[in-house]
Amino acid sequence: MSKSLIKITNIKRDFVLGNEIVYVLKGIDLEINKGEYVALMGPSGSGKSTLMNLLGCLDTPTSGSYILNGKDVSQMKDDELAEIRNKEIGFIFQTFNLLPRTTALDNVALPMIYAGYSKSERKARATKVLEQVNLSDRMDHQPNQLSGGQRQRVAIARALVNSPSIILADEPTGNLDSKTSDEIMKLLEEIHNNGNTIIVVTHEEEIAAHAKRIIRMRDGMIESDTTK
User: Fold this and answer.
1) I need a surface site. Which of 18, 156, 157, 188 has the fewest CB within 10 A?
2) Are 138 and 100 in contact (CB under 8 A)?
3) What's the CA gap between 118 and 126, in Å, rounded?
């Protein structure tokens, strides 16, 4: 059994705009193994956001196959994709995407509701991951009572709560100052050292430098793929 967690074969993604077809991804092949720490880079319009949406099961390809953790997700219906997203993928967004009038603990526990855990299980697990990101003293705080860095830690805890196969981080430090960015990247390194597979989408070289493998995209293709 191969240890590849993600196997993408000849993935294409086209979008119809009026009378035109825009070819955004032009036949991408990519394998990512369990436990890797990958940065996905590329200028605006390179296709990296489209590829991230496909990797995160937020979108399906026009053609080609995507095997995630042994399952072919390229042909799945929306409700099946929603289930895969909830179980297999932990998302970290630049804008944190936290519910404003909800405590840190309840924000973190949210994905577990969809996964069908009991209230006591949710509380225990959410408490544990908040401790893991050093926020045990902020569990009852709402997002507006937290700093940007603390909000991103809540978002990271939420991404971890269902023990997903992949952590997908989209410009995770985009809204943070440089000191806080360093702290968040150190935290992601710790999470990676615990055995998690991490994919960071970024246009910043210093953020990508934390990854062990850098995939650069240009014009809908992979331009280079280097491992440190």
Assistant:
1) 18
2) no
3) 12
